[in-house]
Amino acid sequence: MRKYWLIALLFLPFIAASHARAESALTPVNLKRDLEFKGLYDLSYGGIVFGKLGVEIEQSSKHYDIVTDIITTGVVKFFVPHKSHSTTDATGADFTYNHIVYESNYQTRNKKKYVKIEVNDGKSVETLVPPDDRSKRPAVPEADKEKSADPLSFILRVREALHQAMQGGQNSFDVKFFDGRRLSLISITLAGKKTISYGNSQRETVRIAIKRKPIAGFTTSEIEDYSPKEAPLYAYFSNDEKLMPLMLDLNLWFGIVRATLAKECRTGESCLLSVKQ
Q1: Is 4 exposed, middle or buried (0-12, 13-18, 19+ CB in 10 A)?
Q2: How far is CA 21 from CA 203, 259, 262, in A?
Q3: Angstrom distance (rounded) from CA 38 to CA 154
Q4: Which of the chain's ends, N or C, has fewer CB atoms near its CB within 10 Å?
Q5: Residue 136: how many CB atoms within 10 A of its CB?
Q6: Distance from C-alpha of 248 to C-alpha of 233, rounded to nearest angstrom
Q7: DSSP for 139-168?
Q8: SS3 assignment, position 46
């Protein structure tokens, strides 16, 4: 598995799980733009859960707030202990947000890192702890970062673009993704409507295929590790007004890495994992 997709699986709230039963043409849904979503996800490999992801999203025309907690569990916790707490807070008007602040505290084994991306009117400033070694990782040009999405805003950007693509009859779109160090172009192809086995019921979903291309900020080894032929991520979004991801699958030669929505939390209930750094 490519290192990038391991990171993507842990840090992007693209989620879910099961086997597709049928496929049919896409029809636009009535998107609920004022969104409240709280979910708890299981991360698994070969059916064995190795981590948990809690995500909470609130969005209105003037503001959105996203919080995620991630931890490794079980045997993996002893060999690769990982935890993270990330937030994005955005303000604006009419669902256009000109001030966005993303922060992430994360730790793998004993290595603690911190990333902050603050965007004002399209211009971003990053704080990185520890700072990057510019002899190994080149800086991302300021102009290239314009209109890119941070790791948490990415899910809202994809949700909006997916809805627009369905309305306009388009079969693909691109989103720029910036994690504070690396900038990638994420290409998304609509792959039809599918009914999946989800829990004890059947759910109708919109299936998309996700691939990426490095743009800037990558080290030599990361560029060498990239292949245009690497396996895509497949995400399954609920075909309803929430249009939120129910499934993420990465089918690799050694097995399937998967994330499954285990629970949607009720109003007043938290889906976060109380991660502390």
Answers
A1: middle
A2: 10, 19, 20
A3: 16
A4: C
A5: 10
A6: 7
A7: PPPHHHHTT-B-TTHHHHHHHHHHHHHHHH
A8: coil
At position 48, the amino acid (one-letter code) is I
Q: For residue 22, what are the β-bridge partners?
A: 195
pLDDT above 90 covers a percentage of the chain that reads: 64
3-state helix, strand, coil in the chain (%, to 5): 15, 50, 35
| Distance from C-alpha of 93 to C-alpha of 257, rounded to nearest angstrom | 38
Residue 25 has pLDDT above 80, yes or no: no
- Amino acid 12: pLDDT: 44
- How is residue 169 written in tokens? 């009859």
For residue range 112-137, what is the model confidence (pLDDT) as tens digits?
999 999 999 989 999 999 999 999 99
The CA distance from 171 to 129, in Å, is: 39
